[in-house]
Write a structure and sequence with these properties.
The chain is α/β, with parallel strands linked by helices and about 240 residues long. About 40% of the residues lie in helices and about 15% in strands. It has one domain: Glycoside hydrolase/deacetylase (TIM Barrel), CATH 3.20.20.370. A seven-stranded parallel sheet has the order 5-4-3-2-1-7-6. The longest helix has 20 residues. The radius of gyration is 18 Å and the shape is globular. This is ChbG/HpnK family deacetylase.
Amino acid sequence: MPLNSNIIANADDFGLNASVNKAILFCFEKEYINSATLLTNTPGFEEAVQIIEDNSCIINVGVHVNLADCRPLTNVPARLLNADGTWSLEQTNNIFARFSRQEQKALLQEIHAQINNALQHGVPVSHIDSHYHLHTLPSLNGLFLQAARHYQLKLRLAQTYREGSYLKYWYRKYINQKLIDNGLNYTHKFETVALFLANVQARPAGEKVEVMLHPTFDAAGDLTDHFDKPTMQNWINYIRQLQNV
């Protein structure tokens, strides 16, 4: 039994490496997920593209824009990079970051290049999000909005639970409303698996929700979530309950 159409279970990090690629294909085959976002500047990208081409069960593929690690596809100002030419997460994942016009132009070109890399490899891109949720940061959110409008793609919402900070909560509400006002959102909410499962019984009928997973196989060959191990098992248990109904 496939997931209900109002639930988007998205596997982030497609293309990260061979283990993640194998796990994401497995999850599509088992109908644990119905969406994935593809990293296009990572070692496993070419393999992921071939997997997409060879397997019709893989649907709803987006681009997981990566300004966090590995090397950029374009010439990016050195200030945004580590000494080895990889992205400096310290510079890009900074809520107080201020980028010059030149840096903003370079970052937008890189976002475009990563989307173009998927399109040029024949991937039918349906949406975009970002590695480490960098698209929600004040210094980068506007660039992602521009890219989404340019390519006529949908963009992932920010999570809106409080996390102990009302300021963060209201900021995320604000940027989500900008997405909605521009017609760029593809769900009503974006949640972790834990938050989704905690509220599954009380969810309004027809509310469209995206949940995030990071499938991989561990050293023992078991399917897991490479950010939070219990997440994958909790999700599989939920899907199996649906399949047994």
